[in-house]
Amino acid sequence: MLKGKLKFIFAIIIIAGAISYLVFSGVKDTMVYYLTIDELQAKVPDVYGERVRVSGTVVPGTIEKDNNGDIKFKITDGTNKINVNYSGIIPDIFADDVEAVVEGNYTQQNVFIADILLAKCPTKYESDEKLYESQKGST
Amino acid sequence: MKLFLYIITLILMLISTYAALIYAPTETIMGNIQRIFYFHMGTVWVATIAFMIVFVASIIYLINGKKKWDVLAYTSAEIGVLFITLTIITGSIWAKPVWGTWWTWDPQLTTTFILWILYIVYLLIRANSGFDEKKAKYSAVFAIIAFIDLPLVYISARVMRGISPVVFGPGGGGIEPKMLNALLITLVSFTLLFILLLIERIKIENLKYQINKLIYTENN
Q1: A3 to chain B nearest CA, in Å?
Q2: Which residues of A fall within a CB distance of 8 Å from B105?
């Protein structure tokens, strides 16, 4: 009796494991959290009018703020660039060279109209203390 | 012995609070808000240990059927749910200024959300089964299956595109030595806090069982 039950339990675990694996690998290939700029431009013209999320590095010196608080900037994947127009709350760490994630619509003339702007946080945590020491060391 | 554990935990919690808020240097890009990292990691650490215990205890319970393993799984899951809730809350507070949102459906956040739901469901099922051993065994099976999601939380941020940073391990940027010290002391103190909570919670659960047994014999 116990053996039968154990078999039943193991069967459930194996089935559940298989299902989760399939779901996970399925999601991994098709439903990505964001597109790269490359992938976005490869989807033209289907992508026009579709709501998408794109990530890229903010090109230094391209952030422009106007009087209404709207901002314009460019993001790049190293080779391709797109122009982003955004109005809304700007994350604290948003600046040159930060990896940004924008959500909205890609339009013709390479302009991305975003209504959500997120900034990726650094994966390396450094302090001013350390920077100060390394500067001291180099000079 | 337990008093000793209480005192040590209290002292270490105070030290880790000091380490996180004062001793650790301020992160350059994120600023002071990054200090929530230590508590965020402490809570997710406890939740991870708690759910691992639920997993192992549930397997042992299914094999030998001894009540104490069922109690261990149930009580540990309760603490795990509490701490994963705290993880989500501290993460949100951190994400709002830094990422610019309280929540986003990034792979790691999504798998964490699923984890949260799974163990809340487990608690509901388990609480419902009361002293019915058969139902307790079904909830143990559920707990074992739910555990599949835990590794996914860690893997998802590493193999899928998302916004959650991978700081440790391959592909991670790492943290400064002083930050690491603060983190380690926090993990130790949170582990002790978890052990303390677990001991007390098991005691309550056993008392509850004894009371119910008394009521049962009274009525029959």
Answers
A1: 10
A2: 33
Range of the domain at A109: 37-119
CA distances B137 to B67, B121, B141, B212, Å, are 10, 15, 6, 20
How many structural domains does chain A have? 2
Statement to judge: residues A96 and A113 lie in one domain = yes
Per the CB < 8 A criterion, the answer to whether B176 and A125 are in contact is yes
Q: Provide the domain count of chain B.
A: 1
Instruction: Show pLDDT as tens, one digit a residue, over chain A (139 residues).
Output: 556 666 766 776 777 777 667 666 655 555 678 999 998 988 888 888 888 899 999 999 999 998 888 999 999 998 999 999 999 899 999 999 999 999 999 998 899 999 999 999 888 898 877 666 665 554 4
CB contact under 8 A, B31 and A92: yes
Do A47 and A22 share a structural domain? Answer: no
Closest partner residue to B173 among A32, A123, A129, by Cβ?
Answer: A123
Q: What tokens does B177 get? A: 């030595």
Q: Containing domain of residue B6, as a range? A: 2-164+172-219
ipTM above 0.85, yes or no: no
